[in-house]
Structures are given as C-alpha cells and as structure tokens.
Amino acid sequence: MCVILALLYHHALTALHSTTLLSFSLSLSLLISDAVLGFMWATGQSFRYRRVHRQVFLENLETVIEKKDFPAMDVFICTADPYKEPPMSVVNTALSVMAYDYPTEKLTVYVSDDGGSDLTLFAFMEAAKFGSHWLPFCRKNKVLERCPDAYFRSNHPRSSETEQMKMLYKSMKMRIEKVVDIGKVSHDYITGERERGAFNKWTEGFTCQDHPTVIQILLEIGKDKDITGQSMPNLIYISRQKSRTSPHHFKAGALNVLLRVSAVMTNAPILLTLDCDMYSNDPQTPRHVLCYFSDTTISPKLGYVQFPQRFHGLNKNDIYACEYKRPCQINPIGMDGLAGPNYFGTGCFFSRQVFFGGPLSFITPEIPELRPDHMVNMPIQTQSILALAHHVADCKYENQTYWGSKLGFKYGCLVEDFYTGYRLQTEGWKSVFCHPDRPAFLGEEPINLNDVLYQMKRWSVGFLEVAFSKYSPLTFGIRALGSIMGFCYAYYAFWPIVCIPITIYSFVPQLALLIGVSIFPKVSDPWFFLYAFLFLGAYVQDCLDFIFAQGTFQRWWSEQRMWMARGLTSYLFGSMEYLTKCLGIATLGFNVTSKIVDEEQRKRYDQGTFEFGVPSPIFVPLVMAAIINIVTLFGGLMEVLRGRSVDELFVQMCLAGFVVLNCWPIYEAIVLRTDKGRMPTSITLISTFLTWALYAAASLVLKI
Ligand SMILES: O=c1ccn([C@@H]2O[C@H](COP(=O)(O)OP(=O)(O)O[C@H]3O[C@H](CO)[C@@H](O)[C@H](O)[C@H]3O)[C@@H](O)[C@H]2O)c(=O)[nH]1
Ligand SMILES: [Mn+2]
C-alpha cells in the first residue's frame, strides 16, 4: 500500500512539475493507470481476510435427516439455441442429474428451451426413453459418471451389459443428431399419439421470437417407471411464450418462468440451476448440499450453496485461461468467510425462499400458488395445474408485478447471475461455497479465441451495469454488506476498467520511446526500485497464489497473458459498448456462447495453438499492440546501438520486451502459420495501418 501510494505521489508530482503539455499528459495517463491498478489491488485484498475451507461428513447425513424426509428438489436446465447448444449435450446434462443418488420420487427436472425448438423437445422425448434404462443401470453398477457421454468416453468396465447400454445410447444419439441435421422432426421419428400431439404446436408462424408456451410432461413420478419398475423422476419440457413486443430478459427471464411453473407443479423447497453444458460429475452432490441446509447453525439465513465452475476438455496449458481459477476457485474461499460466495449462474442450489424477499422480510407473490409454502396436492397433469402453469409462463404475466425487481432472478444486467447473487446477499441472505475434491459439475468452455473474447465482453458489459447502477457495490453494497464484502463485489463490478491501464501501458510508453522520449525513471534513479518492486511483487504473488491453488506455472503464464489480451479486447470493447448503451445508441443482447466443436479446431486447440481464423474486429487492438511493441523493442535497440544510454530507456524496453514475449502466438499467427486458424490478412493490414496512423499522430503532437 505504501509503495503504491508513493508511486501515485511520484506521478502526481511529475505531472504538477511538467513544463510541456506532452509531459503533463504522459504523467497524467500513468497516474490514472496506476490509480486503477491500485484500486484493483486494494479491492482484491478483500479476498484474503477470512478464507474458509469447508468439509462435509456425508456419512452423518442420515443421522440428521432420514432418507424419507429428504426435501424435494427441482432442477432447472436452460438452453437457448439448438444450433449453438447441441440438444445431445443438453440431454446428457439432464440425464446426469436425473440419475442423482437421490430418491427419484423427490426429483423434478425442468428444461427451459428459449430456442423454442421442436428439435430439443424431440431430443428430450428420446432421453426420457433412454433414461428408463440408464437410471437403473447407474444404480445397479454404482456408476460415478452419470452423464452417459462422459461415461462412455471414460475408461468404463466392459461387459455385455455395458455394451448393450452403449448400443442404446448410440442409437439415441444417432436419431437426435439426424433430426438436428435435417432441421425438422419428420413423421417417421415420432412413435406415439401423445408425442405427435406435442409437435402440433409448431405450426406456421412459430418462430423462436414469437410463439405460444409449450409445456410437455415427458416423465411423471409414479406414472412412468424405469425398466426395473422403480419410479422415474419428473421430466418437464418448457418453452415459455415469446413475443417480439415483450422483453424476455434472456436467461433471468427464463429462470423466473421456471420458478413460477415449478411452483405451480412441484414447488420443491430446494432448486438447482444449471447451464445446459454443465453435467453432474458426482451423484452424491445433492447430499452434500443437504448437509448445509440441515445445519441449524447456518441454515436460517442460508440462501444458496454454490459449487465452483469446473471445466472438462481444457488443453494442458489452458491457453485461453478459461479455467477462471481465481473467480471460480480462489476468491470464493475468501468470500465464504464473510457473507459467502457470489452466484455463478450454474451449479448452485438455492432455497426457494430466497426469491421472495429477505430472510426476515417476506414478499408475497401475486397469486398464492406461487408462495414457497404452498402445498401442491394434485398430480401435475391435472387440467387446472397445466392451465395455471401456462398462465404464469405467459410473456405478459410479469407486467405490473415485482418479478425481476423484488421477486426471483433480477433483471437489467447481462450477468444476471452475479447481479442476482449480489442483490440476494444485500437482502441479508448468506451463501456457502462447496468445493469437494471430485468436481460436482463439469462444463465446457469455448475453444476459439474469438468466442472466448466475446464471452468476456458480455460479462464486462454486465459488470459495468452493476458498477454504475444505483446498487453500485461501492455505495449501496458497502452500506448493505460492510466494507470488505462490498469491496469483493466492487472488485468484480469494476473489473473491466483495467482496460484503461492495460491499453495505456501497451501503447503510450512505446510511442514515447519511438519518438525518443524517456518516461520512466532511469535505472540509477532510486524511483526505479519502486517500479521493480511493484512489478516483481505483483507478478510473483500472483503466480504463487495460482500455484498454491493446484495450478501449474504454464497455466499461470497463460492466465497472465490472457489478462493482458482481454484488457485490450473484451474489457475495452465491453466498456465501449456499455458507454454507447448509456448514450442510448445501442441496445444490449445476450449472445449465447457456441458449444459446437469443429474437429479441426479441436485438434489445433488440443495442440495448444491459438485460433484466430475469423476476421473479427476484436482482434485489432491486440494485433496493434503486438506490432507496436515489437517495433519499439527493435527501435530501442537501435537507439542504444547508436549510443544512447540503456539507463534511460531500460524500463520502456523491458515493458515492450515483456509484451512481445506475451504476444508470441500472435506473431506466429501472422507470419508463420498457414492453417485455417491463422490471423486473417485483413486484420493484419487494418492493424498495421492503424498502428502507423497512431504513430504518425503521436509524432505530430510532439512537433507541436
Ligand atoms: O436468452 C437466453 C440466453 C442464455 N440462456 C442460457 O444461459 C446459459 C448460459 O449461457 P452461455 O452462452 O453458456 O453463457 P456463459 O458465458 O458460458 O455463461 C456464464 O455467464 C452467464 C452470464 O452472462 C451465466 O448465466 C452463466 O451461468 C455462466 O456460466 C445457457 O445454458 C443458455 O442456454 C437462456 O436460457 N436464455
Ligand atoms: Mn457456458
């Protein structure tokens, strides 16, 4: 803290004593940059005060609550587009939770299809049939991997029974993929009358933005049995009504419809929200959660139990730093000692109560059937229940209600998860971070750079929406949660503004060097040690934190590289998009991340090669930085060869050298590679031109 303050003081002093406009603006830009970095450092400290590691003792659970008293659970799975989120993968996710080691008659799986696609519905009809074989198979063989795809990919025991299962799985997969390929469910794929009826809703004029509600009960507790005669869990397909004239609030809107429909149909006190690609990797997970919900020392205020997002299929060095170790695994431990971790949007078990006001201030929903204490005592297929379910899924239902503001998941932010969790905590709810050794859920991350950067751009916009809303963590948050917890949320909400220092440090000292100005202290100057200390201190600490959390050095290197890259791309574009939104020029949308995998891309990804390929504008600032830094490095070397002292340019050259080291894959993609993932020539040309223009402008300013 002292060193950071000293540095800021140094910048302020140089700015005040500067004699020209140029040196004043240079010092000012450094002052702003370091102030932002200092702010991030300071708020980041809040994750270090009270770290808590929790452990459950599953063997004691049934001494506290008997199995017959286990609460019912409703699972929500969201999907939004059959072409970006293959129905086969959604089906796998659903099957993995349907097969939970939990009384099946207490389990309901709701699938929300925002894509309004008959392909997804078809896939789930197939899944319902396959499930009646899969569930008893898992129980009997005590299978750990209950996601069929993961199971058959893994090293499973071979027997005639598993082979038979595999055949069944493959034939289901083939049918689903065929239907998705053709793009429509043709008649020969539909077997029963009931099924045909379901597809009748897809009439002329049914589009994903404009269609009536579809609710289809695919499996019903008590009625549908698996092949051994045991009850199947409920499996319910929902595609809420959509209309071009009503806002649908993206995922938060979908979840609120699920909240209401499930209240009408099953009203389980515990809910699990899952993204369509996050399959369960451990059938014991609901029992872990019960350990917390039945712990009377924490339970009255316990709002949710969050599991970390963990991913499968990352390459060895995780080149795009998609493991998100810090936000998903390290920081929540720090928040757990305070009010508890933030909500990640997936892998989170809620108490239904939290969606109806604070722990001490219940807010009554419009109709009594939605109350969390309402008892459902009719079968879900009852006419009146179905009618009410359709009613609450209507796109106009929420008009003039508290949904999205005081009830349910909160609207108005592209990271509805972060915002909702934050608001729940400010209402007084606590949360718990549950991080067992065996990952409870495994998800997917994009494997090409463009998708990775745009995903982070969406988050950046969302974070800024929270940062500058009336619920800003720095004002409202600190008041409601206390300063340390408020800082934790501020750290995330203001995260995208690191684009300011990153952009400045990638261009300004370099341009200065190219026009011959030295802006950092000489090596012989005592202020130099300040720089050396801060740089080494920050990087070494960062690296150690990462490695102590079971990380590797290479993955840390990727992470710090992507931090830099995101600063120039996602955060920068996100901040600009947020600004244009504030000015009323643009409207924001939730672009679903594609989960489709191109085989060639997958191969390159597995080899650890960066994937550019598409001429995307988001690459431009990144390539510009790569170009200017390498030019600066050579320019600096020339200067030194011509006799200028290294002393003066040392810091600037080190900085350029460090960026060049990080940008190595970009130079490769521009110059050396010939595969489809190389840098598109148009991006290289545009970036070169813009870099040159920047340099020309900078030299012009200097002449004035
Ligand atoms: O209009 C929409 C848009 C998205 N989704 C679903 O939301 C989930 C997350 O979407 P994805 O494109 O995978 O976003 P990610 O960036 O990978 O997701 C992270 O960030 C989101 C917020 O931006 C959170 O909602 C997620 O839980 C979190 O994993 C998916 O299951 C989608 O099907 C909907 O249901 N309706
Ligand atoms: Mn996702």
Structural write-up:
The chain has 25 helices and twelve strands. The strands form three sheets. The chain has an eight-stranded mixed beta sheet with strand order 3-4-2-1-5-8-7-11, sandwiched between helices. A two-stranded antiparallel ribbon has the order 6-12. The chain is globular and about 85 Å long. With 704 residues, it is an alpha/beta fold. The protein has two domains: 245 residues, no CATH class; 380 residues, Spore Coat Polysaccharide Biosynthesis Protein SpsA, Chain A (Alpha-Beta Complex). Helix content is 51%, strand content 8%. The structure holds uridine-5'-diphosphate-glucose (UPG) and manganese (II) ion. The site of uridine-5'-diphosphate-glucose has 24 residues, from strand 1, helix 9, helix 13 and helix 14.
Largest sheet: 8 strands, mixed
CATH topology of the largest domain: Spore Coat Polysaccharide Biosynthesis Protein SpsA, Chain A
The CATH level-2 architecture of the largest domain is identified as: Alpha-Beta Complex
Radius of gyration: 27 Å
CATH class of the largest domain: Alpha Beta
CATH H-tier superfamily of the largest domain: Spore Coat Polysaccharide Biosynthesis Protein SpsA, Chain A
Task: Please tally the β strands and state the result.
Answer: 12
Residue windows where pLDDT falls under 50 for at least 5 positions:
none
Tell me what portion of residues adopts beta-strand conformation: 5-15%
Count of domains: 2
Total number of helices:
25
Strand order, sheet with most strands: 3-4-2-1-5-8-7-11
Query: Terminal Cα separation, in Å?
Result: 38 Å
Share in helix: 40-55%
Q: What is the structural class?
A: alpha/beta
The overall pLDDT average reads: 95
**Overall geometry:** globular
- Give the ligands present: uridine-5'-diphosphate-glucose, manganese (II) ion
